[in-house]
Amino acid sequence: MTESSARRPRPAHAGRVPASARAAGALLAALSAPCPAPARGQEIDTLAIRAHTYFLTHDLLAGRGTGTAGEALAATYIVSELRRMGIPGAGPGGSYLQPVPLKEARIDDDGTAVVLVEDVRERAFRSGEHFVWNTGGRSALRDFAGQALFAGTAALAQGALAGRASLDGQVLVVLGTLGEHAAELVPDWIRRGAEGLVLLVPDPRDFALHARSRGPARLFVDAPVDDPVWQSDLPTLIAGPALAAALLAGTTIPPDALDGRRPFAALPLGRALRATIRAEVRDVAAANVAALVPGRDPARRPEVVAYTAHYDHLGTSTPDERGDSIYNGFSDNAAGVAMLLAIADALRRDPPARSALFLFFTGEERGLLGSSYYVSAPLVPLERTVAVINLDAGAPPAPPRRWRVAGGTLSTLGELAARTAARFGWTAEPSGARPNSDYWPFLRRGVPAAFLIPGQEWDGVSREERERLRQRWDRYHQPDDEWAADFPWAGLERYARLALELGRVVAEAPDRPRMLEPPPGTR
Ligand SMILES: [Zn+2]
User: Fold this and answer.
1) pLDDT digits (tens, 9 = 90+) for 11-54
2) Which of 68, 72, 114, 514 could form a disulfide bond with 125, CB atoms 3.0-4.6 angstroms apart?
């Protein structure tokens, strides 16, 4: 699958010297520079980062929930800042907003039901109480029916189903959720004709958590997008304890069949399942924000290095013990947006050879909706998008020494990030990819993409101090992930600096980063 990247056209100016030798030369020159840190001194404006995050996390924006007025205000702020800096929009005619066709389906529990049919007996189960309809793509919110076929856990399901060329007429029943296995499993199961999927979550507390986190509404992209993890086209239910027990009743599952020690063949459960859904569907107004700093070199200007950060957050939801129901999302991801603006400001003052594209996505928290749509309707063709650098949910309260480069093992971008960090005396370790932020849809399309994640070792911070800082600032997905006047900005300055320098390296290098592995889910 790496062929798709190998087939891409080379930059027109590529000369006689082998590209790899030139890249190595440039890299050596950079590595042997006398000063470990780049000469450009105060490029990242931390006062600006402080101001951007102050506005974006204000209670008036009510947590920037996807499709809300607060999110639209955040988009307006970002556009306003880009205009102030004189950076044009990347859309048609220089527009900044890319409308994303989102819809919200509000599930009517009274009209949504599951019926189990065994011989002539029928037993009905209630939506919200016995099962919840899972999040999915626009074709996943439809009725389905078929014979229940137990396929074990997600990790073993492919082996269990190996003997069946066709899954026509079958409703697959899996113990637990699919996680990132969905990227491989779902497209294959759809191809083989599966009617639907039931995920068994027999633990009452786990099931309650699934039900609560989904709530009554499902957001989906109303356009053909390819994301089997978040926008699956296979209708999927999450079954709680009562429905799980009824599905498996009378079936003996070999106790060690589910841990992979013995081969396990899928078991027909001897009953049929019929699921019907009723939902009220409405349009949701949402948009990605996009801007472009044109490259210095006319020959390479058509190619872009893309910086990405989502600007939505969770909006308002369950209040915490202080009664605060606004999820302000300072670290996740006002900080990422602010860093992108600061990087854009630095690059427009001193543009690199290739162009720099800045993408602020909507709907990340609701399943990478803005970025999934973007890769299906890119403003700059993906063939000309040489790399993606994603920043999300990690405002370090002190300057990190170590980084993780998620997705970095899939392309040469990981090694470039490691070498860039080394120039500063830091380390950056490439790792695999997960569908947990906006870099994932790009990797799925074969675009080298990395999510820079700050580590938990910080400069000038003792172990005790580190614990104190973590307790004070680690507020992932809680209402008190919010702006504070005493937040130390040196960590974000360093985070933004690494991203800025990595982007510069990629934007100046003669060769583009290339994929080393097939896109996730396509093996
Ligand atoms: Zn988040």
Assistant:
1) 333 333 444 445 555 544 444 444 444 445 458 999 999 999 99
2) 114
Tell me how far the alpha carbon of residue 44 lies from the centroid of ligand 1, in angstroms: 24
pLDDT per residue as tens digits for the range 276-312: 999 999 999 999 999 999 999 999 999 999 999 999 9
In the chain, which stretches have pLDDT less than 70? 1-42, 256-257, 523
- How many angstroms does the Cα of residue 292 sit away from the middle of ligand 1? 25
**Contact status, residue 196 vs residue 237, Cβ threshold 8 Å:** yes
| CA 477 to ligand 1 centroid distance, Å | 6
Q: How many CA atoms lie within 13 A of 404 on its CB side?
A: 12
Q: From the CA of 71, how far away is ligand 1's center (Å)?
A: 14
pTM (whole model) above 0.90: no
For residue 333, the CA-to-ligand 1 centroid distance in Å is: 7
Q: Which residue do the tokens 């931390």 mark?
A: 46
Beta pairing class for 449-454 and 402-406: antiparallel
**CA separation for the pair 316, 326 (Å, rounded):** 5
Look at residues 519, 361, 500, 362 and name the one whose alpha carbon lies nearest to residue 43.
Answer: 500
Provide the pairing of β-strand 121-126 with 113-118. antiparallel
In sequence order, what DSSP letters do the residues of 89-123 get, joined into one string? BSSGGG--EEE--EEEEEE-TTT-EEEEEETTEEE
SS3 492: helix
User: Distance between CA 84 and CA 80 in Å, rounded?
Assistant: 6
CA of 187 to the centre of ligand 1 (A): 26
Give distance in angstroms: CA of 359 to centre of ligand 1. 17
Kindly list the structural domains of the chain, giving each domain's residue range(s) and its CATH number in brackets, ordered by start: 46-104+282-508 (3.40.630.10), 109-277 (3.50.30.30)
Please give the pLDDT value at position 370: 98
Query: For residues 54-90, b (16+ Cβ closer than 10 Å) or e, as one string?
Result: ebbbbeebbbbbbbbebbbbbbebbbebbeeeebbbb
- Indicate the pairing of strand 113-118 with strand 267-276: antiparallel
* Separation between Cα atoms, residue 369 and residue 355, nearest integer Å: 25
